[in-house]
Design goal:
The protein is mostly helical. The protein has two helices and no strands. It has one domain. Keywords: Membrane, Transmembrane, Transmembrane helix. This is NADH-ubiquinone oxidoreductase 14 kDa subunit. It comes from Bimuria novae-zelandiae CBS 107.79.
């Protein structure tokens, strides 16, 4: 969990460095150092949101898998019952 938030925070800082590189401005200007935590926070919050999306998707997939397995078990029981009657 934490590694994803840290990754996206690092990516946010990387985006800031890339932005300053494109603008050909100094990377560590004293007046603009406060922006790095802002970009890291935005990236970290995106990573946290993305982690929640991933957890919801895994939950939906596991529920669907369980439903399919139950359906297959019921079908197998019906087929076995039909085979015993015949």
């Amino acid at each position: 969990m934490v590694h994803k938030v840290l990754f996206w925070s690092g990516l946010g800082v990387g985006v800031r460095l890339w932005q300053l590189g494109i603008e050909m401005r100094p990377l560590f200007n004293r007046e603009s150092l406060w922006v790095y935590p802002v970009f890291a926070g935005i990236g970290g919050s995106f990573g946290y949101w993305l982690m929640g999306v991933e957890q919801r998707q895994w939950r939906v997939l596991s529920d669907r898998r369980d439903a399919l397995l139950e359906k297959r078990a019921r079908r197998k029981e019906r087929e076995e019952a039909a085979a015993q009657e015949a």
